[in-house]
Predict the 3D structure of the following.
Amino acid sequence: MSTTVSHDIDRVPDAAELERYRAEAREWLAENMPPLDPRADPNQQTKEHVKDLARRLHSGGYSGICFPREVGGAGLTRSHHRVFCEEAADYELPIYLGTPGLSIIAPPIMEFGTEQQREHVAAMLRGERLFVQMMSEPTGGSDMAGALTRAERDGDVWVLNGSKIWSSGASRADWGLVLVRTDWSVPKHRGLSMLLLDLSLPGVTVNTIKMVDGSEEFCEEFFDDVQVPHECILGEPNDGWTVANRLLFHERQSVGGGSPYHFNRPKSARSSARGSDLVGIVGRNGREADPVARQLIGEAHANELVGRQLISRVSDAVASGVLPPIAGSLLRLNTGVTAMRRGSIALGLAGTEGATWEDGDDADHPADQFILRQASCIGGGTTEMQRNLISERLLGMPREPAADKDRPFNEVRRSRREENTR
Ligand SMILES: Cc1cc2nc3c(=O)[nH]c(=O)nc-3n(C[C@H](O)[C@H](O)[C@H](O)COP(=O)(O)OP(=O)(O)OC[C@H]3O[C@@H](n4cnc5c(N)ncnc54)[C@H](O)[C@@H]3O)c2cc1C
């Protein structure tokens, strides 16, 4: 297995080098990237817009700051990446390219992929290809290793059947990374494979799912006898769980804010995230002097500061081997609970004003954020699952009993509904 990077992303550059980099990035951003509209929802960026932003970044050498030069990255360090994200806080970035593409899917391709498969990473960095991750299934997402979507070998191809759901932005993607069952006669973790799937292949159907706020970010996919070339298996056949584990590590880092491949923006009480400009909200309803409002803003601000410290502390500890990779769950858990709390604080500060608005009113709408706030505790693995991982694998507490452990997957009892998906 090769490593994610062929250079030392943890090298600490000297202050002068970083200041030079900061000044160059600042000038380049001002000349080349569109300014951020703080009210625009980055999840609504169209496919062409994401690709255009990615191409601009690539032309300046900023699309893959921590990726190795062999795939078109800049071969620089976490510190350069952090400096760039700070400078880019007020500019539009190709968010959908960063997550899941560069921060969750590209690292396992770099680790397990053949030279030919690594071309996917180069194409992502050039803004030519967008990827979606397809792990969750209608029967449940937490038990990812219980995947029922299957692929059977037929000569040089794998024949794919089944369905996936909750895939963020699949309608914008060109390719997907799909976890499938390829051997039913062994325990569940041992019969999985990871497939790189061209979404334009015959037999792939992608439908969008309309959310409660009207957005159509989530998708469901159906696979009917899709013929996937054998060279699209990432890693070894039936060893997909090894790849999935690394994908989950990078997902926790990304969702938790600690990934060096993700376009993350520093937040503040004047966060640019929609519906969460807390200072703006109290200003609009004249509560600047209200001690309760001030206390709530202070709480949100303290959570942000603690979150930022936690990210650098845990990321450094994982990079130096002081903590195991599973410690990324601490970041994922903290991001989920603080984002949820921030959504509640924003609506509490706005009061009834936050829940009603006229068409065309372009002020922040905290109610939008409030009704979707639980998503931050579900996407990238639920907070309950993170607590399980922290207790069992970080603190060494007893493992949750699992009736299907060590039992061939085709002997595991399932509901009739699940059986029908076979
Ligand atoms: C914003 C967002 C983006 C997403 N993007 C993607 C994506 O791009 N690709 C993709 O494949 N999926 C994606 N998902 C799906 C996500 O990974 C799943 O929703 C998640 O893993 C939970 O699966 P589930 O919804 O099926 O709930 P279930 O797994 O059915 O769980 C239901 C409830 O039971 C709890 N639970 C389950 N098992 C345990 C246990 N062992 N111990 C304690 N509690 C447990 C869960 O915490 C949860 O509260 C996304 C979800 C969100 C919200």
In short: The radius of gyration is 22 Å.
